[in-house]
Amino acid sequence: MFRWIFAGLTLVISGIPISAADNPIVPDGAKLEKLWSEGEFTEGPACGPGFCIYFSDIGNRIMRFSPDTKKTKVFREPSGRANGLDFDPQGRLVAAEGANTGGNRRITITEKDGTVRTLADRWDGKRFNSPNDLTIDTQGRIYFTDPRYVGQEPREIKSESVYRADPDGTVTQIITDVQKPNGIVLSPDMKTLYVADSNPGGNQHLLAYPLNKNSNVGDKKQLHDFGRSRGIDGMCVDIRGNIYGAAGDGKTGGIYVFHHDDGEQLAFIPVPETPTNCVFGDRDRKSLYITAGKSLYRIKLKVEGFAVFWPADAANLAHLNTAKDEDEPHLSSNDLRLYYTLGDKGKYQVMESVRKKANQPWPAGTSMVEVNQDGDCRSAFVTDGNKYPQYFFFATNKDPEKPDGRGDNFDIFFLTRLNAKADFTNPTPLHTISTSADELHPWLTRDGLKLYFSRKDKVGWQVYVAGRQKMHEQFGKATAIALPAGFHHPTLTPDGKTMYLQGPLPDKRWGIFRSSGNGQSWSSPEPLLALNHPDAPKGDMSPALSHDGARLYFASDRPGGKGGLDLWVVPTVQLGKK
């Protein structure tokens, strides 16, 4: 069965042009680029920090390709005969090190300081056969295959199985009803584990196993049988959950794309060398990197890929970020205006960056004269620009009676614009929620009936919410949400069921957390492992979702910025689901 398969191929020196009109996966005119071809046997690509592609060259080394410089350099040699690679939610490289000469037969984690440590090298007291490939869930649990294709080391485990290694090193054998498990990948919702049972002369199957909340598997489902052809070696998934498997050789060698539910083939991308594995990369997540033979290839696709770790990016904010503090971002509904707070020597002002197209980088921001008059102004939030009246909320400590116009606490004000041609009105305070404490970080729900905000009272920062019956009425009395003290700066998904917020980490830095609820009660906030950079002195903070909930903007003093706090962005699909 198939929905769309393309197998035409014309090889040229600079690349492989692929005609794919109406193909849902491959753009018309897409070319397969050969990026590097100096390996022995390439395998196990993974997208890591800086959007670099790490891959194994077996032999006995790990390579790193930089999309920015287009150079490939040795990352580690020897590698313990590393094969499959992946990055955990904290951005650490995890490797399946196999058997044969120089092989360590273990699962390792490379810490941020470069230290390589063994997470697991045995099950039930017995050494692994030859860890081959791995995938990682949003909780940092590692699922890996343990076949034996090569190597003369004595085997201590009779079966060739699939295992799960928990973050504390506990190893559980979870799948035994396979012949030779090879490639392995999780679905984006973490509810299905896909395994390639690839036995030369035996099974060549793509299998799906349901996962329960405890990460135990249910009964397998066969999605595809390659028959006598070479089955899948390694694989990855896109954000829709479709499976990209490196399989076949010769004229049948390439990337096979299967529907995640029924196994129908959606596309085929031919590759001139025997393909071994693939992964999505680049900033737009639409480049598929392929290891094959002695080489590394790349092709641009129509769909975005999925990975548990995806580097937070400041590249399209490079013109906006400065050596001062850029904080408290908020994106307009049309994705063309970015509001943020500029902090400089204890003073604050609201800035606005405007671009013409949603895919363009953000230019340098300018001060909002409608807001920044006397005192300090910060924490902007603007309602949908296609609906009027439009409201612009912000916080200020303006106090005309003080010499410098700066009062002792922040209160939330709003401006009103009646139509597209009108100017914003003068600021109006929200008297019903104003107190002698600081009120910051307003966030209005889609229907305009609930205003979430931060208040620093006697117990510290807390999230408050005030409601009203109709859009243009005053808000009623605010009440505190039952969350631990210290959590604040809320931003909600469009459906109002998930809240991202800022809170204290155990090491006293700020971090970004997530809570789920129904508007009345909220779960205990859980830290986002994919964020909260360990090398950010102050931490990751000030989360703000885009209007569609697809991207999370935040501020951080993590490495790679311009200095002080800078703005960063990460796709929310890479943060996993609550």
Question: What's the helix and strand layout?
Answer:
Blueprint: E1 16-18, E2 30-36, E3 42-47, E4 53-57, E5 61-65, E6 72-76, E7 82-87, E8 93-97, E9 106-110, E10 116-120, E11 122-123, E12 126-127, E13 134-136, E14 142-146, E15 161-165, E16 171-175, E17 181-186, E18 192-198, E19 204-210, E20 221-225, E21 235-237, E22 243-247, E23 254-258, E24 265-270, E25 275-281, E26 287-292, E27 295-300, E28 325-331, E29 337-344, E30 347-354, E31 366-367, E32 377-382, E33 390-398, E34 406-417, E35 428-429, E36 438-444, E37 450-457, E38 460-467, E39 479-480, E40 488-492, E41 498-504, E42 510-516, E43 526-527, E44 540-545, E45 551-556, E46 566-571
Structural class based on helices, strands and sheet pairing: mainly beta
The total of beta strands comes to 46
Helical residue percent band: under 10%
Question: How would you classify the quaternary structure?
Answer: single chain
CATH architecture of the largest domain: 6 Propeller
**CATH topology descriptor of the largest domain:** Neuraminidase
Question: How many strands, what sense, and barrel or not for the largest sheet?
Answer: 5 strands, antiparallel
Number of helices: 0
Shape: elongated
CATH class of the largest domain: Mainly Beta
Give the radius of gyration: 26 Å
Average pLDDT rating = 91
Total number of domains: 2
What distance lies between the first and last C-alpha atoms, to the nearest angstrom? 35 Å
- Unreliable runs, pLDDT <50, ≥5 residues? 1-20
Question: What would CATH call the homologous superfamily of the largest domain?
Answer: TolB, C-terminal domain
Q: Order of strands side by side in the largest beta sheet?
A: 1-2-27-26-25
Taken as a percent bin, the fraction of beta residues is: 35-45%
